[in-house]
Amino acid sequence: MLTQFTVQNFRRFETPIIFSWKAANYEFNQECIKDNHVKTALIYGKNGTGKTNLAWAIMDIVFHLTDNDSSALPTNNYLNQNSECQYASFEYKFIFENTEVIYNYKKNNDTKLIMESFKIADIEYINYKVGTPFTCLLKGTENLNKNLDKENKISALKYIFNNSNLDKRNPQNRIFHQFFSFVNGMLLFRTLLDSKTYVGFRNGADHIYRDILKKGNLKDFEKFLNECEIECELAETLSESEPTIGFKFKNKIIPISYIGSTGTKSLSLFYYWWQEIKAGKISFLFIDEFDSSYHFKLSRQIVTRLKDVDCQVVLTTHNTTLLDNDLIRPDCGFKISKSGIKSLHNSTNKDIRLAHNIEKMYRSGSFE
After folding, report:
1. Which uninterrupted H or E stretch holds 264?
2. Rounded-to-integer distance, Cα 275 and Cα 192, Å
3. Cβ-Cβ contacts under 8 Å for 257 (sequence gap 6 or more)
4. Is the pTM for the entire model greater than 0.90?
C-alpha cells in the first residue's frame, strides 16, 4: 500500500507537501487501518487549498508508468508559477511484503521525465537520468538494452516491466511486479456525471447504465439504490435506441438520465465503479468531492461501505458530520492548508479519545 507521498513544485505546491498515512495508536475502528497505516482517509480543507491538486499529483504516476487513461490530468501550468525551479519532483513510499519501496522522479514543464530512482529496502535497484544509460540490479535484466531514446523520455521502469521476463521467485522481482500491479489498479474519479471523467485502472469506459446491464448487475444496482433510501424498481429500456436503465412505473419505464436527481445520478456513477471496487480490482481509490450531491446520511453510508473493502481509499469532502469516532478515527481525518497536510491526530496536543466529539473540535478550530 501507499504509505507516504511527497510532491514539490507541481501546480500550487511550491514547497514540499508530505502526505503520510502512518496510523496512530487507537483501538477503535480498526477496519480503517491496514498494516499500521490509514486505509480510509478523509481530507478536509478550505476551497483553493489544494485538495484536487493533491489528487492530480498522486495520480501522476499513472500517466507516467501505465497505459491506463490519464487524459483527465491537467498538463497546462504543470509547474508552480511562483517558483524558478524547472522541474516538479514526486516521491512515493510503499509497503509490499513488509518491505519499503521508494520511487521518485522529476519531470519538466512539458511533463517529460528528467530522472527516476527505484529502491527496495534502501537499495537502489533502478536509476535513470534521461540521456544516459539506466542501471538496473533486478535479476533477469542483465542483457536488456540500457540505452533509451532520450527524445521520447519514457520511464526506464515501464520499459523494464514491458520488456523483461522477470522470475517472480526472486523477492525483488516479485516486489517490482507488486508495485506495478498496485499502480495499474489506482483509480481517481470525481462526482461528475460522466463515467469517462476518471484517471487510471483502465483505458476506455462504457456508458454507466449500459455497463451495469452488460455485467448483469441490474438487480444489484436496484438493491444498492434502495439501500441508499432511493425507493425504486428498475428495468431495462432504450434511450436514443441504446440500452439503458430506467425507473419502472405502473405503465411506463423512464430512463434515469431523464428524471433522476443529481444525487441519484451521482450514486449511479459511484455504483459504476463500485462494481470494480467490491470485486477487489482497485488497489487505490481517490474520489474528489465524493459527496457533493449527497444527503449527510448517504455520505456516511458510502464511507461505511468503503471501510469494508480492501483497497486504500482517499476521499475529499466538506461534510464535517463524517468526523465521528463512531465512523472513523482522528488519524483518518486530514486537514490540508497552505502549510501542508496533517492528520487531525497530529494537529493537536490533546489526547483524543473515543468519547470526544471531533467534529465539534474541528469546527471550533482545535486543529488549526
Report:
1. helix 262-277
2. 17
3. 209, 239, 244, 265
4. yes
